[in-house]
Write a structure and sequence with these properties.
single chain; 79 residues; mainly beta; 5-stranded antiparallel sheet; 3-stranded antiparallel sheet; 8 strands
């Protein structure tokens, strides 16, 4: 099973030009609200492959990575 999951993201451009994700639409239709963005940097996904802008986000009590790669958002599937 592929660990890279392309997802829908509701994001907003701030006045200073930053693109900030607000929620994630998972492949099964669930929506996860992003409580906080902890870090933003260019990085590679070692689990799923690919690289781009990596957002470290908090959803509830869980931290996870969300990537923006060539105009598409993906997350790493957890098993």
């Amino acid at each position: 099973m592929n660990t890279k999951v392309y997802v829908g993201v509701n994001a907003m451009f701030e006045a200073d030009g930053r693109l900030l994700p607000r929620s994630i639409l998972w492949e099964d239709g669930r929506i996860f609200e992003i409580d906080k963005i902890l870090d933003v940097r260019r990085a590679a996904s070692l689990k799923a492959g690919g690289s781009g802008i990596r957002y470290t986000v908090r959803i509830g009590r869980h931290e996870t990575f969300l990537y923006l790669e060539e105009g598409r958002w993906f997350a790493e599937r957890r098993f």
